């Protein structure tokens, strides 16, 4: 197995696990909500969820009034889209046909020559680094520079 195949297999297994978890979670989003006091000062914040973008915020089984502001910290659709984009990035950084030990995208212009980076390139290692706490992550080989 090549260095690229090893890291790509690891990353894709992690992404498959993430996708299965996201599919099981169902639609919706989770956010930090901020509520203000009558004088305009921050009153309190809470975490709540809603099943769709136009739906009401709910916390502890109770529907909440509209917050002064909110910051979405989890959106299933967004996370699924991110996984798809990351798969496209991994595919783009596949091995070069003329030299399978090198990335087909990443190059270095050292001493006037364009040299392709050895695999796994930094981009692929960065994709894997999100999962550095998972079994199978090879820190000595895959840690980003």
Defining traits:
145 residues; alpha+beta; three-stranded antiparallel sheet; 4 helices; elongated
What do the pLDDT scores average to?
A: 90
Distance between the termini: 23 Å
Radius of gyration: 21 Å
The overall number of domains is 1
What order do the SSEs take from the amino end to the carboxyl end, as H and E? HEEEEEHEEHH
User: Biggest sheet: strands side by side, in what order?
Assistant: 2-1-5
Q: Are there runs of 5+ residues with pLDDT below 50, and where?
A: none
Q: In a few lines, what is going on in this structure?
A:
With 145 residues, the protein is α+β, with helices and mostly antiparallel strands. Helices cover 36% and strands 30% of the residues. The chain has one domain (3-139).
List the helices and strands and how they pair.
Blueprint lengths: L2 H23 L3 E8 L5 E9 L7 E2 L2 E2 L5 E7 H17 L9 E9 L2 E6 L3 H8 L9 H4 L3
Antiparallel strand pairs: 1-2, 1-5, 3-4, 6-7
In words, what does this structure look like?
The protein is 36% helix and 30% strand. Helix 1 (3-25) packs antiparallel against helix 2 and helix 1 runs parallel beside helix 3 (122-129). Strand 6 and strand 7 form a beta hairpin. It has 4 helices and 7 strands, in the order H-E-E-E-E-E-H-E-E-H-H. The chain has one domain. It is α+β, with helices and mostly antiparallel strands.
């Amino acid at each position: 197995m090549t260095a690229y195949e090893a890291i790509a297999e690891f990353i894709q297994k992690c992404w498959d696990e993430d996708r299965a978890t996201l599919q099981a979670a169902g639609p919706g989003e989770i956010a930090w909500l901020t509520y203000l006091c009558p004088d305009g000062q921050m009153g309190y914040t809470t975490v709540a969820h809603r099943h769709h973008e136009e739906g009401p915020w709910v916390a502890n089984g109770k529907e909440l009034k509209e917050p002064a502001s909110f910051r979405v910290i989890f959106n299933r659709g967004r996370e699924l889209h991110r996984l798809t984009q990351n798969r496209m990035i991994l595919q783009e950084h596949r091995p070069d046909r003329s030299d399978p030990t090198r990335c087909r995208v990443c190059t270095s212009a050292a001493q006037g020559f364009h040299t392709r980076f050895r695999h796994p390139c930094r981009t692929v290692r960065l994709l894997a680094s999100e999962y550095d706490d998972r079994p199978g992550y090879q820190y000595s080989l895959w840690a980003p520079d």
